[in-house]
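#lab-general

N.A. 3:47 PM
ok so I finally got the sequence cleaned up, no stray characters, all 167 residues accounted for. can someone with queue access submit it? mine expired

B.Y. 3:52 PM
send it over

N.A. 3:53 PM
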Amino acid sequence: MSNFIVDKSGIKRYLVSVKINGSEYTRVVKANTLLVNFLREDLDLIGTKKGCELGDCGCCTVMLDGKPVNSCLVLAVDVDGREVTTIEGIANGEELDIVQEKFIEHAAYQCGYCTSGMIISSRALLNENPSPTEHEVREAIAGNLCRCTGYVNIVEAVLAAAEAEKK
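B.Y. 4:20 PM
back already:
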């Protein structure tokens, strides 16, 4: 965090360079800018939802260097030189990721607010463990709260995605 400037009002701002969904971004941010706000407000990547802002609900989950994190608990300055994947970066162009496809196929969403965080957590799991058990899926999504679905369809969708990726 040594690349800083002091603006006219005396506030210290930092130069952050980060790869997000395969594209390089360099922006000046305040020291206290949260990653979720940086993504949504500075880069207009609004698929990452803003919920509790305490790290409890998981709707702001993104992958940081391939690992799921709550972006409401990470400062934008802490992603300098790192790689972030948001829900916008999961698909391959117009082709949905298999996890996204299976969420649709298994009706693993209702209101949809938790969905992007659930999909990110699920994709991160399958990247690490292509053959998870039901227990491992439930453990991987434990940090993502859903008030609508009861999780059954979500778990089924992730297991179906794992099976589909084996083929």
